[in-house]
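Private note to self, pasted from the team thread so I don't lose it. C-alpha cells:
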C-alpha cells in the first residue's frame, strides 16, 4: 500500500490537467470507524455482563473495532456474539482451523482484509498448517472444493443447486458429510454478510492486527477501504448542502409512513396486483447502480491469494433481455418452517442461535426516528429487509412491494445495493448521502438489517439446495 490516495476518474483527470504528478495524502481516520466519530462510539450504552463474558472469551477482554461499532446496539451484539462464538469455538462438525480458514475464504471474496487478517491471526494461533496461509493452492483439495459454492453464495446465490451439493458430498476421499457442509455453508454466509457490515459501517482495521506472520506480507497493514480523497474531503461540504433539505426529507418520510399505515386498512390488492408490484420493484433494482467506481483502475487485492475465479461477481437477479431465474417464493421454502429445522437437525442448536440473531436485528427498535420519539418503525425495517431479498429474487406474497419505493429514497437504495452486493465499493460519501438527520447508530442499525437479510437469503438458497439433494 503506497502513501497516495486511490482516486476516482474525475479526480485523476483534474489532477492531470492542473497539477501533473501531484501527490495526495491518504486520510487515515482514527477510532473504530472511518464513518462515525469516535466519541459517539465510546459514549454508547455499556455492555451487559454476559456480553463482556463473550468478549473475554473471544478477545481476551480487548474489544476490537468491529465489536465497538456493533456495540452501538448492545442487545443485538449479545445475540451476534452468542452465534459467532458457537460457530467458531464450540463443538461442531468442523475442526477449529477449518472454521477460520473458511472465514478467510469467505471474507476474501469481498476483499475484506479486516476480517481476513483477524482470522489469519486466529488460524496461526491454533498452530497447525501455517502453509495454508500462503494461498488456496497450499490448502487441502477438500477445502478448495468449496470455492464454487463460496463464489456462488457470495455473488449469485440463486444459482446454487442440488448438483453443487452432490459434488461436495460425493467426491471420494475429499468428500464432505452433510453436517460438515452445513457448518461450512453457515460460516460462508456469516462472513459474506459480515463483510457487508464492515464496509458499510466503515470499520477500521485493528492496530493490533498489523503483522500476522511472515506469510502475511503487507496484507494486514492498517488502511481504510479504497476511498478517493474526494469522498473524504468533499463529504462535509456535501453533507452541509444536504442538511438544508434534511428536515423536510424527514417530515416527508414520516408522512409517507403514516399514509401507508392508513392505506393498509383499505388496500385489498389482488394477488396479481401484489405480484406486479414485486416485479416492478425487482426490475427497477436494475437501475440502481454505484457511481464513481472505477473497476479497471482498482488496485489488485492483497487478499487475492484466497480467491478463486476473481472475475466472478454480483450480477442482477433480474437481467435485461435475458432468461431470468425463477423467483424464489418465500412461502415454498421459509426460514421458519424449513431452513431452521434442517439446520438444527444437521448442526445442533445453530438454528436457534441464527433465528435469535435474525429476530433481534429485525425487531430491534428504540421507538424513535432521528429527533422524533414514539415512532413505530416496523414498516421501515421490513422495507429494508425485504428490499434486499427482492434484489436476490425472493418474494413474500403477503408483502406490498409498493411500500419500498415509498419508503426508500434513491440514495438509500444505492447504498443498500452497494453494501449488500459489492460492499468493497462502499464509500463514506454513500454513507452520508441518505437520512441526513438520523443518528449514526440508526445507520448502523440499517447495516445490521442488511447484513442479516443478506445472510438469510444466502442460507435459504443453500438450504433449499441441500433439501432437494436429500429428497
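Design output:
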Amino acid at each position: 500500500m503506497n502513501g497516495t490516495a486511490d482516486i476516482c476518474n474525475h479526480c485523476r483527470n483534474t489532477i492531470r490537467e492542473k497539477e501533473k504528478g501531484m501527490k495526495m495524502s491518504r486520510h487515515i481516520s482514527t477510532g473504530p470507524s472511518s464513518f462515525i466519530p469516535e466519541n459517539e462510539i465510546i459514549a454508547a450504552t455499556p455492555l451487559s455482563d454476559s456480553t463482556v463474558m463473550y468478549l473475554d472469551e473471544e478477545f481476551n477482554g480487548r474489544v476490537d473495532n468491529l465489536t465497538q461499532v456493533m456495540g452501538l446496539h448492545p442487545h443485538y451484539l449479545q445475540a451476534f456474539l452468542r452465534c459467532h462464538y458457537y460457530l467458531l469455538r464450540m463443538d461442531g462438525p468442523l475442526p477449529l482451523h477449518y472454521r477460520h480458514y473458511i472465514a478467510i475464504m469467505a471474507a476474501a471474496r469481498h476483499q475484506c482484509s479486516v476480517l481476513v487478517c483477524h482470522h489469519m491471526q486466529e488460524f496461526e494461533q491454533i498452530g497447525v498448517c501455517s502453509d495454508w496461509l500462503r494461498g488456496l493452492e497450499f490448502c487441502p483439495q477438500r477445502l478448495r472444493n468449496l470455492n464454487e459454492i463460496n463464489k456462488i453464495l457470495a455473488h449469485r446465490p440463486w444459482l446454487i443447486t442440488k448438483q453443487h451439493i452432490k459434488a461436495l458430498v460425493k467426491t471420494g476421499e475429499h468428500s464432505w458429510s452433510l453436517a460438515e457442509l452445513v457448518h461450512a455453508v453457515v460460516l460462508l454466509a456469516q462472513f459474506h454478510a459480515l463483510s457487508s457490515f464492515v464496509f458499510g459501517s466503515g470499520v477500521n482495521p485493528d492496530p493490533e492486527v498489523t503483522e500476522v506472520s511472515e506469510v502475511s506480507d503487507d496484507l494486514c497493514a492498517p488502511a481504510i477501504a479504497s476511498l478517493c480523497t474526494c469522498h473524504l474531503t468533499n463529504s462535509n461540504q456535501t453533507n452541509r448542502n444536504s442538511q438544508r433539505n434534511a428536515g423536510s426529507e424527514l417530515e416527508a418520510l414520516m408522512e409517507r409512513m403514516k399514509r401507508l399505515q392508513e392505506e393498509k386498512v383499505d388496500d385489498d390488492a389482488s394477488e396479481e396486483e401484489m405480484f406486479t408490484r414485486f416485479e416492478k420493484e425487482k426490475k427497477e433494482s436494475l437501475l440502481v447502480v454505484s457511481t464513481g467506481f472505477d473497476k479497471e483502475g482498482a488496485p489488485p487485492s492483497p487478499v487475492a491469494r484466497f480467491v478463486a475465479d476473481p472475475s466472478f461477481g454480483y450480477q442482477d437477479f433480474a437481467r435485461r433481455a435475458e432468461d431470468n431465474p425463477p423467483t424464489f417464493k418465500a412461502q415454498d421454502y421459509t426460514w421458519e418452517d424449513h431452513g431452521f429445522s434442517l439446520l438444527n437437525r444437521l448442526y445442533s442448536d445453530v438454528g436457534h442461535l441464527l433465528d435469535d440473531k435474525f429476530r433481534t436485528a429485525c425487531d430491534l427498535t428504540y421507538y424513535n426516528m432521528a429527533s422524533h420519539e414514539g415512532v413505530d418503525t416496523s414498516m421501515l425495517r421490513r422495507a429494508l429487509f425485504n428490499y434486499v431479498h427482492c434484489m436476490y429474487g425472493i418474494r413474500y406474497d403477503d408483502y406490498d412491494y409498493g411500500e419500498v419505493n415509498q419508503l426508500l429514497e434513491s440514495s438509500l437504495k444505492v447504498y443498500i445495493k452497494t453494501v449488500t452486493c459489492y460492499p468493497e465499493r462502499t464509500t463514506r460519501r454513500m454513507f452520508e448521502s441518505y437520512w441526513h438527520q438520523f443518528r449514526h447508530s440508526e445507520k448502523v442499525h440499517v447495516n445490521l438489517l442488511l447484513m442479516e437479510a443478506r445472510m438469510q437469503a444466502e442460507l435459504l438458497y443453500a438450504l433449499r439446495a441441500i433439501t432437494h439433494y436429500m429428497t
